[in-house]
Design brief:
Length: about 260
């Protein structure tokens, strides 16, 4: 595997998670992700694209047996340092989310991917790999920035007459593929992202045999709402829980006339 884009920003990213706007966003999103994951005690869980292990540690504290997976060796170095400082039994493996070659079929009860699917080039391969490593009936919980608010040319924040951000202007929604924000200071300005429409995301889940059980767009509250009040009006995150459907081969396996 070649060096990952997050290798270059690992320390910067970890600092921003612990403090600043990224930290506020993290404090809002992760509890919602854990809520959809449900009871994890005693379960084998994969934290996919785990970064510095923030979600993996939260899962371990809830009694899960956690394996964190990431392509960035620098991010994994940070994750292992946190594990040394506070041993929770989390193990970390460097692997490509698109193949998960290090893991056997049906290795996990659940897979979590927090705010990372847009960092991965091939969504279809990734979701098929997720389905492969899940036990029959296993679940997949993921969170992403809503694709209808983060696309090439977006977001552009709309201000009212008093200079308060009151909405988001969306551009180039149908332009799927890699993009990088013009402003260089944020995550998307530094490493870019892969944009897909919502329909592409949903159809990719269907094709992988992952049945959507829950789909939520929680309204921002607390400190993040004070920092970015626009997200009280529009969703800042989209979170879903899916279930592996045994024996389902995706849309290609459907007969003509089937819904």
């Amino acid at each position: 595997m070649s060096p990952a884009s997050y290798d270059e920003i690992a320390v910067w990213y970890d600092e921003r998670i612990r403090e600043g706007p990224l930290g506020l966003f993290h404090l809002f999103v992760v509890p919602e992700v854990l809520k959809l994951a449900g009871v994890v005690e005693g379960r084998q869980i994969c934290d996919l694209a785990c970064g510095q292990g923030a979600v993996a540690r939260r899962l371990a504290k809830r009694g899960a047996n956690v394996v964190g997976v990431d392509v960035s060796s620098k991010m994994l170095d940070l994750a292992r340092r946190y594990e040394r400082d506070e041993p929770l039994g989390v193990t970390y493996t460097r692997d490509d989310a698109q193949t998960l070659a290090a893991f056997a079929d049906e290795a996990f009860d659940g897979v979590v991917c927090n705010m990372a699917l847009t960092d991965i080039p091939d969504l279809g391969k990734t979701l098929r790999s997720v389905a492969r490593v899940l036990l029959p009936g296993g679940w997949f919980v993921f969170s992403i920035v809503p694709p209808y608010f983060q696309s090439p040319g977006s977001p552009r924040f709309v201000q009212d007459d008093e200079g308060v951000v009151s909405g988001i202007e969306v551009r180039d929604y149908f332009s799927e593929g890699f993009w990088r924000r013009v402003e260089p200071n944020g995550v998307r300005g530094r490493v870019g992202a892969y944009h897909r429409t919502l329909s592409t995301c949903v159809n990719s889940l269907v094709d992988a045999g992952l049945h959507i059980e829950n789909f939520v767009e929680p309204r921002v509250t607390g400190s993040l709402a004070e920092f970015a009040p626009v997200y009280e009006s529009v969703p800042a995150v989209l979170i879903s829980r899916c279930r592996k459907v045994s024996g389902y081969g995706g849309r290609e396996g459907m007969k003509v006339g089937e819904p």
